[in-house]
Automatic annotation (TrEMBL):
The keyword Disulfide bond does not apply. Keywords: Membrane, Transmembrane, Transmembrane helix. InterPro entries: ZIP (IPR003689). It comes from Trifolium medium. This is Putative zinc transporter 10-like. One of its GO terms (molecular function) is zinc ion transmembrane transporter activity.
């Protein structure tokens, strides 16, 4: 893994430098590419948060034993998601 990272990082930097002269920021192809990459990385982050992080917390014995704690936790998750969505509006 370390070898893969140490080899691909300089290659990615070199590729980025080589492509920077032909990159047009507002071209339709560039906008579509950036949109697809942003969407896929956001989807991966949402998946990791919901499946790997929150699912483990919500499946604990403490959480399963208290409906009041479950409701508070769901409300906290929705408030957090709403707050992040609100902040994303200005980003």
């Amino acid at each position: 893994m370390v070898f893969f990272f140490s080899v691909t990082t300089p290659l990615g930097i070199a590729l980025g430098i080589a492509m920077s002269s032909s990159y047009k920021e507002n071209s339709p192809k560039a906008l579509i590419t950036v949109g697809l990459l942003n969407g896929s990385s956001a989807g991966l982050l949402i998946y990791m948060a919901l499946v790997d992080l929150l699912a483990a917390d919500f499946m604990s014995k403490r959480m399963q034993g208290s409906i009041k704690l479950q409701l508070k936790s769901y409300i906290a998750v929705f408030i957090g998601a709403g707050g992040m969505s609100l902040m994303a509006k200005w980003a």
